[in-house]
Structure formats: C-alpha cells, structure tokens
Amino acid sequence: MRQLTFAPRFEDWQRVARAALEQAIPPDEVVWQELNADQPSLDIFEEEVPSSGPSKRAQFRVPRAFVELARAVALNCEPVRWALLYRLLWRLTHGEPKLLEISVDPDVAVAFQLQKAVRHDIHKMRAFVRFREVAQENGSWFVAWFEPEHHIVEQNAKFFVDRFASMRWSILTPERCAHWDCARLTFTPGVDKSQAPSDDNVEALWLTYYSNIFNPARVKVHAMQAEMPKKYWRNLPEAVVIPSLLQEAPRRVEAMARKSAAKTEANEERDWHPAPVPETTSLSEVAAASRACTACHLYKRGTQTVFGEGPKRATLMLLGEQPGDQEDLAGKPFVGPAGKLLDRALAEAGIERDDVYVTNTVKHFKWEPRGKRRIHQKPNSREIAACRPWMEAELRLVKPKLLVCLGSTAAQAIFGPSFRVTKQRGAVLESEFAPKVVATVHPSSLLRQPDEESRAREYALFVADLRVALAAAAA
Ligand code: URA
Fold first, then answer.
1. 380 CB contacts (<8 Å, ≥6 apart)?
2. Contacts of residue 310, Cβ cutoff 8 Å, sequence gap at least 6
3. Of 60, 99, 229, 345, which one's alpha carbon is 20 to 30 angstroms from that of 142?
4. In angstroms, how far is CA 146 from the centroid of its own chain?
5. Which segments constitute the Uracil-DNA glycosylase-like domain (predicted)?
C-alpha cells in the first residue's frame, strides 16, 4: 500500500493524483491521507513518488466534465471522496473514457450525489446567510454566522463579494471565515459561534423586512420545512415570526390582493451594483461618475443623484442625511425649506455658505407617495452602506478641517450606530474622516417643533453648535 499525503484541496489532490497515475499506482494500492493544518505542508508525496516528467502527462486526458465534477466533489466533507475520485480518474484513463455517461455505475452515482450535496450547501449558504451590523470605530461592519456542511466558504465567497460589494462584511463559520473590506477578500481560520454577534438593530429590521416580503398566499408549510431544515432555523431571526405570520396569513392574503401591484424592496435590491467611484483627485469627475450610480435601488426612485457642492478647498464640510423633494428636482443639496433655515443659521453663526462644502450621506431622495406628495423616508443601513463610497470620496478629496454632521444619519455614518446626537451634540470630536467633527441636529427637526417657543429655543441651540464648529475650524 502507498500512503499519499496531501493538503485536502482539489489542486493538491490533482497534482498528487496525476503523479500517482504516472507511476501507474492502482487505486486499491493507495491510501489517501489528508494533511492536517498542524502538519508541515511538505510535498511528501512528491518525495516518495517523483514525477516522471511532462511527456507522460499528455497521455492522461480526462473529459472536462470530470474536472468540474472533481472540483465540486473535493468540497464535500466525505473522507472517501479522494479515493473515489482517483478510482474514477483511473478508470477514465484505463479504457473507460465514457464512464461518466454511465449514471448507474456506483462510483459515478456516488460522485454525482456528493456534487449535488455540495451544490445544495452552496445554495443554502446564499439563501440563509444573515448579516448583522456591528458598529466599528470607522463605520459599520456586517457579520454573519453560518454552519456549512461542506468546505464551501472559499468557493462561495465570490458570490457575496458581488452581491454586497459596497458593504464591509465577514462570514464566520466553524471551519473558515471570509472577510471583505470593499477592496480585498481574505480568509482566516474558523471561529466559535460565540464570536458572531447575536442580536442588534439589524435583526429587528430583518424581521420587519421578512414580515413584509412573506407571501401568505404561497405558504406551503411542508415545502418550507423541506427547503429550510431545522438546522438553519437556529441562525434565522425570521424563524421566530413565522408561526404568527402563518396565523395571520388569511387576513394578509386579502390585503395583498389589493396591493398586488406594489413592488417590494426585495425585488428592487436584486439590481444593486457597487458604487463606481473613479480613482481620481478631481471632485467633478467623482461627481460625474456618481450620476451613473446604481449601487442601491434608490437610483430608480430619485430623479437624479444629488452630489455635494462647494469649493474643494473648503475647511468646513456640512453632511446632511439625503436630498429632499426640492433638492431631488434641483439636483443641489439643501435648497428646500431645511436648506433655507440652514442658510439663515449659517449666516447668524458667521459662516459664509459659499465657503462651505455641503453634501449628504445618501445621494438619492428616498420617498413614498402620499396623495400627490412625495414624503421623505429615512434611508436604511444598506442604502447608507451602498452610498458610503461617495461620501468617503468627498471627505478624502475635500479634506475638511471640520465636519458638521447634521442629524443622526450623518453622525452615525461617521461615528457608528451607537452615536446619539442628543447626548453628544456641540462637542468637538475626532474621527478618521476629519480632524474635528461637530454633530448637531438636522435643520428639518427645527421645522417640526410643535410651537414657536420650542422652535426659537432649538434654533438658538443649533446656531450655537454652528458657532462652536466655526471656532474649532479656525483654531
Ligand atoms: N435634508 C438633507 O439632509 N439634505 C438635503 O439636502 C435636504 C434636506
């Protein structure tokens, strides 16, 4: 018997198997020994069985379908897979070139079963990974916990990169973890489930989202359980709402019939693409590129991208939430009622608006119809994440000495979701995005004050915060 030791990856097995084939070692004389992570990755096999050169390789031709099958089977966790693959390889190259077409052959049948199990696991991971937002010093990170049955994390990571290119995320699993920082995909060893965040605001958001997309008219409980084995339910926040949704189903079917034309955000999200921020030092080139942005579905709802405005050399930058109705039509930030109030407050604080760079965290207007009016809707964390590259590009190019965050969406985009404007307004803070940052309320909150007295009081506080910002910028 020959013991062949190799790292349990397709490419390593392929190399070792090819050499074994060249040495004419029959399948029943081989013991396939996986190299553990703590063993040195010596090419032990090649020491024992040196390859006899490239000339013999040419005679071992296998169908392309076998390579595809073997790649998938290699991801299965079944230990016998390596011996099975070598047996298939041997038979394909020793008089049975059409072996893969004989689906009743036991080796072929088992190989296809192992491939199917891997594909199923890949599909499950794509369907059931749920990211939870974790606040970090430099913004949000989305973390998911998943327990795959097979070795699919590396192979599947590209799918998540394409789907969530503008989010920074990690998928933690017991065997291997994948990380994406919006630029690089990296892998680290597996972790314990305790390292995955278990609950936060995203879970609540997801439950609402799931309740909204849950289609009571299509409930087939048995099919649902078959598609979603109990194993996955543990990691799915929506599992807790399913029983009550099922109970409410008949009433909701009726309501759905009325609203059947309404498109869900879930459908719209399928069209998301990464923000195409060009590598340039020109603000106007970045602004021009932003007009073609389809990084989230809001580009379909807003009239146009509303990019920031103001001098590139500005020492002060104002960051709002998102354009409103009038900004959306004009293509300029802060020109509507909140903008007018902002202009007044800036003047009172001694700040020239023309000297300031004014922009928003999200560059498209998110709204819902009410009668003939378009009513502002708060952007959600995924829309903010999708738009983030534009805001970061503006901050990188303008390099303001002082950034004023107007309202909680802007402040949380800079300091993370736990930041509270009510607690920290008016303080001069530091961040990686600007040496000094002052957070204050959004001017539209002044417009919503219930009476003249509170409006005057809040307005005075707002002007005071702007004065703090001006003084800090000048210091
Ligand atoms: N509110 C904002 O946050 N930005 C605008 O541009 C207008 C209103």
1. 205
2. 317, 354, 355, 356, 357, 358, 359, 398
3. 229
4. 15
5. 307-467
Q: Is the CB of 148 under 6 A from ligand 1?
A: no
Tell me the CA–centroid distance for residue 335 and ligand 1, in Å: 8
Torsion angles phi and psi, residue 299, rounded to 5: -65, -20
In tens, the pLDDT along 296-328 reads: 989 888 899 999 999 999 999 999 999 999 999
CA 448–ligand 1 middle distance (angstroms): 14
- Using the atom order of ligand 1, give the atom closest to the CA of residue 327: 6
* Predicted pLDDT at 58: 47
Under 8 Å between Cβ of 395 and 422: no
Distance CA 356, CA 400 (A): 9
Q: Which domains does the chain have, with CATH numbers?
A: 2-124 (no CATH), 129-195 (no CATH), 203-268 (no CATH), 283-474 (3.40.470.10)
Residue 330 pLDDT grade (very low, low, confident, very high; cuts 50, 70, 90): very high
More confident residue, 60 or 56: 60
Judge if the beta carbon of residue 339 lies within 6 A of ligand 1.
Answer: yes
Give the residue carrying structure tokens 């949380």: 412
Distance 199 CA to ligand 1 centre (A): 31
